[in-house]
Design a protein that fits this description.
- The chain is mainly α.
- The protein has one domain.
- 96% of the residues lie in helices and 0% in strands.
- It has two helices and no strands.
- The N and C termini lie far apart (91 Å).
Length: 95
C-alpha cells in the first residue's frame, strides 16, 4: 500500500507543478493578448485619422469645384437650386 501512496504523492506533485506552469502560461497569454489588442487599437486609430484626413481633402476639393461651377454659371445654379427646393418641398408636404 505504501507504493500506492508514493505513486499518489508523485502524481499529486506532478499535478501541482503542471497546474502552476499552466497558470503562468495563462498569465503570459493574457499579457500577450493585451499587447496585441493595444497594438490593434493604435493601428485602428492611425488608420481612422488617415481616412478622416483623406475625406476632408476630398470634401474641400469638391467644395472648390462646386464653387467654380456656381461662379461660372450663376443663373443655372440658381435655377437648379430652386428646382431641388421645389421637389424637396413637395416631398415633405406629402408627409
Amino acid at each position: 500500500m505504501s507504493n500506492n501512496d508514493g505513486t499518489m504523492n508523485q502524481h499529486a506533485s506532478d499535478f501541482r507543478k503542471k497546474a502552476s506552469t499552466l497558470g503562468r502560461d495563462v498569465e503570459d497569454l493574457g499579457s500577450i493578448t493585451k499587447e496585441l489588442a493595444g497594438a490593434a487599437v493604435d493601428k485602428l486609430q492611425e488608420n481612422a485619422g488617415e481616412y478622416y484626413d483623406q475625406g476632408m481633402k476630398k470634401a474641400k476639393l469638391f467644395e472648390r469645384g462646386l464653387e467654380k461651377k456656381i461662379s461660372s454659371n450663376p443663373l443655372m445654379s440658381l435655377l437648379i437650386a430652386a428646382g431641388v427646393g421645389l421637389v424637396a418641398g413637395a416631398l415633405f408636404n406629402r408627409r
